[in-house]
TrEMBL record:
Residues 5-139 form the HTH marR-type domain. PANTHER family: MARR FAMILY REGULATORY PROTEIN (PTHR33164:SF99), TRANSCRIPTIONAL REGULATOR, MARR FAMILY (PTHR33164). InterPro entries: HTH_MarR-typ, MarR/SlyA-like, WH-like_DNA-bd_sf, WH_DNA-bd_sf. GO terms for biological process: response to stress. GO terms for molecular function: DNA binding; DNA-binding transcription factor activity. It comes from Nocardia bovistercoris. Keywords: DNA-binding. This is Winged helix DNA-binding protein.
Length: 145
């Protein structure tokens, strides 16, 4: 890497941050103005059948107490609910509510529009190459797959 080149991790972070900021601005404009980035980072890790709080904390890289606080806020806002875990009567799962599913679907629509802009800028071949490269890198960097 030459002196004038930015490290690739910082480059990826800048692109991620840009998308994240645009998604949250669009969410607020659409009436989902009661969700924070921290709450969204926890909520985005909820698996379709539900997730345990400890899993959410680990994946969001926050303490269990912080995850619990954020889930409490999401519950009060109507985005998630806690339900009994069918595999362990002592445990609870966090699941998205209908409102949470609507928010997620809208956020995904905004993300897709941003990706379309990136495709227009990069070209289809480069965007496909970027997707393929990121998928391969995820195999090395994402312990949750």
């Amino acid at each position: 890497m030459s002196e004038d080149e930015m490290n690739v991790g910082l480059s990826m972070f800048i692109a991620h941050r840009s998308m994240e900021q645009r998604i949250y601005a669009a969410l607020a404009e659409a009436g989902y103005d009661d969700i924070t980035v921290a709450q969204g980072r926890v909520a985005s890790r909820i698996a379709p059948p539900g997730s345990r709080l400890t899993e959410l904390a680990e994946q969001a890289q926050v303490t269990k107490q912080t995850a619990g606080f954020l889930v409490d806020q999401l519950t009060r806002a109507g985005y998630v609910r806690r339900v009994p875990d069918p595999d362990d009567a002592r445990a609870r799962l966090v699941r998205l509510t209908d409102r949470g599913l609507e928010l997620a679907a809208y956020a995904n629509t905004v993300a897709a529009a941003i990706e379309n802009e990136w495709t227009d800028h990069l070209g289809k071949a480069r965007m496909r190459q970027l997707r393929d490269t990121m998928a391969r890198l995820r195999q090395l960097t994402d312990p949750y797959i």
